[in-house]
Design a protein that fits this description.
Helices cover 46% and strands 15% of the residues. It contains 10 helices and 9 strands. The protein starts with 6 loop residues before the first strand and ends in a 10-residue tail after the last helix. Bound molecules: ligand LHQ.
Length: 264
Amino acid sequence: MSEPDPVLVSVTDGVLTLTLNRPDKLNAFNEPMHFALRAGFQRAADEATIRAVLLKANGRGFCAGQDLGDRDPRAGGPPPDLGSTLERFYNPTLRLIRAIKKPIVCAVNGVAAGAGANLALACDIVLAARSARFIQAFSRIGLVPDAGGSWSLPRILGEPRAKALALLGEQLDAETAAAWGLIWRCVDDTELVDESEALAARLAAGPTRGLGLTKQAIQAAAGNDLDAQLDLERDLQREAGRTADYAEGVTAFLEKRKPSFQGR
Ligand code: LHQ
């Protein structure tokens, strides 16, 4: 019997929804899932009618990271080149998530471990179910945080918390993740689907180009000093000021009505 699609893809009202779909393996990454997820994000980047992305998962967990069954050391042979796995699979997807000029919402249910946790954290707005947990599981198997985790964790949390999470591999519950600023919010388990869909729909009805430029500006800040960031703001604001959505936003304000943004 053929395997079901590892990532389900649907589009509704400008929201592209990507649903990780290997629930029996807690949505651990194998090659088909890597390719399908990348193709989904690429579609979001390419199609103008897509104005927001929602990443979520089927089953009782979000994603358990790399499928550890794919490289069973008991099979013998030379050690694997995990750097090549990152170069071929994870890194292009992580770069794409950051480069897409559209907001990406992630809904985390259950466990997000290893690269699965860091995939979630790479998205723009992360909602988690109250019962969700994040595990930097790498140290449990002798690896280092990847999928951008060694970059994002110290930036968001500072070294002390980043190091403890990465070195100890202990789980972090969703409420603490929210309190520490690692994610946007945690919500009741029963609310996760509705809240994440509503958030993605709201963003998809927004001024897409302005939102994309905002994402770009905020992401650039970590590598810029204030002078460079002020220059960037000037350039991006110039671009935003030329969009039809800016004209609509101001017109709607002056006419005391809700704006109708077209994403242009
Ligand atoms: C899994 C997995 C999994 C396969 C659960 N693989 N089956 C790594 C290497 C290569 C290149 C570069 O990058 C990376 C990055 C990484 O992501 S390294 C980190 C890899 N992930 C982990 O080390 C996590 C491994 N999983 C776990 O520790 C636990 O499963 C967690 C804590 C995630 C969940 O625990 P439980 O809720 O108790 O669930 P479970 O352990 O019973 O898992 C349910 C099923 O899913 C089970 O299968 P089974 O047939 O026995 O029901 C697991 O074997 C399977 N599964 N994670 N990563």
